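[job 4471] stage=fold_predict status=RUNNING
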Amino acid sequence: MLHRLLHAFDAPEPPPLPAPDEKLALGALMVRVAMSDHSYKFAEVHRIDLLLRRLFGLGPIEAAKMRATSERLEREAPDTEEFGDILRKTVSFAARVDALEALWEVTLADGVRHDEELEVLEDVRRTLGLSPEDSEAARARAETELGGSQ
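[job 4471] inference complete, writing structure tokens
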């Protein structure tokens, strides 16, 4: 009985993380970009949820659950290059450009560009096999998207 009382308030073990597929890899990269400046703001969380809904056709609850899984995956999972490799090997060139645009949206969501976020974006760009010009075009589209949705 004493054992049950002592362990009554133990947190349950979280379910094991799924292996990252292209969706979770992108979700984890969005979280990584948002957290890279050590400030994970509501605007960034909200933008990630909106992007998950838009990109993968999820409802609000499913997007929030996917983001939560992506947050855990980002904390416990591999380096940026491994996430980028998953995307590079499993999705088309156009989808990789769309992924970079999504990462730009997260970077720009709080209205401030931080060097740490830009460094992660640059690492992802290279890993995805995209050019600096592809990144600039993705940034411009992200700015247009943010301008129309804020």
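[job 4471] summary: DSSP finds eight helices and no strands in the chain.
[job 4471] exit 0
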